[in-house]
Design a protein that fits this description.
The chain has five helices and no strands. It has about 90 residues and is mainly alpha-helical. It is globular, with a radius of gyration of 15 Å. Helices cover about 70% and strands about 0% of the residues.
Length: about 90
């Protein structure tokens, strides 16, 4: 089954012609499901921190407290940094 034909196109890339900070997440997630971790990382370097951030987001929704809110903000900041640095390496290094 070819799942790539069911992936959502990037609206930012469609409108402006350049990739956004989230471009490649779907394909990287698909590569992780196939077991190719390095190719997933190369496709979208922030894949692991994004999944960790989404996990913390679900944990926060299930158990709202001040400590969990702080953890969510810290993980969001780390994920944002990985997205920016990964964008740079994806376009200028690999």
């Amino acid at each position: 089954m070819n799942l790539e034909k069911y992936m959502l196109p990037c609206l930012f890339k469609t409108l402006f012609g350049i990739e956004c900070l989230g471009c490649g997440f779907q394909r990287a997630l698909f590569l992780l499901f196939k077991g190719d971790f390095f190719a997933g990382f190369k496709m979208y370097p922030a894949i692991f921190t994004s999944l960790l951030f989404l996990g913390f987001g679900v944990f926060y929704l299930l158990n709202k407290s001040k400590n969990n809110q702080k953890l969510l903000w810290v993980s969001a900041t780390i994920n944002g940094l990985f997205m920016i640095v990964g964008y740079y390496f994806k376009h200028f290094y690999f």
